[in-house]
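Exercise 7. Given the encoded structure of a 200-residue chain, write a plausible sequence.
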């Protein structure tokens, strides 16, 4: 009787051990199935069919988003460059009339001998103005006599019949023009030559 009880007890203990071993094996299998994010991503890439329409559409969408982001960055960089390059434009536009008045003062002062010293002082001031503004990219538009009229840089205020030069040439500068680096800030106001009516 006791032998039978002991046998049953031993069988029961064996069953408990087997169950514990199975649980342990399952836990080990479960731990073995745990993947890192990188391993999971790589596994998904290997499992997903490259020809899958959904995947192709997602890839195209990713490319579009990346292209839009790159274009946005390039546009922002250009706008920043333009802003830095021409940030002083409005200030320089306000300074140009001051230079005009100084040059006008010297033009009239040269007609009066008593103003020679004053004219020299103003000329020096104008030179300092030009040298300083040139450092910031502002330069006067240079025009030679009988130069071709260029509507990109010149503004025709009038026409004058001339026999000594061809038609369409700059024969007089009424107001000096200025450019900021490669951008027109104010066109030169000029008189343009034209053929005389009685010329052949």
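Solution.
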């Amino acid at each position: 009787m006791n032998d039978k009880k002991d046998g049953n007890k031993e069988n029961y203990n064996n069953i408990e051990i087997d169950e514990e071993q199975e649980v342990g094996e399952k836990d080990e299998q479960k731990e073995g199935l745990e993947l890192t994010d990188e391993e999971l991503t790589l596994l998904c890439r290997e499992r997903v069919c490259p020809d899958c329409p959904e995947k192709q559409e997602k890839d195209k969408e990713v490319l579009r988003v990346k292209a839009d982001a790159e274009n946005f960055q390039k546009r922002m960089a250009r706008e920043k460059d333009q802003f830095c390059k021409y940030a002083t434009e409005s200030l320089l536009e306000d300074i140009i009339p001051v230079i005009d008045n100084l040059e006008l003062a010297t033009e009239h002062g040269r007609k009066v001998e008593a103003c020679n010293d004053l004219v020299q002082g103003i000329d020096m001031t104008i030179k300092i103005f030009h040298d300083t503004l040139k450092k910031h990219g502002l330069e006067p538009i240079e025009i030679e006599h009988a130069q071709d009229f260029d509507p990109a840089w010149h503004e025709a205020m009038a026409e004058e019949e001339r026999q000594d030069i061809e038609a369409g040439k700059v024969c007089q500068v009424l107001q000096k023009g200025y450019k900021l680096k490669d951008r027109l800030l104010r066109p030169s106001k000029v008189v343009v030559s034209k053929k005389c009516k009685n010329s052949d």
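Remark. The helical segments are 2-33, 37-47, 53-85, 89-109, 116-135. Students should compare their own answers with the one above.
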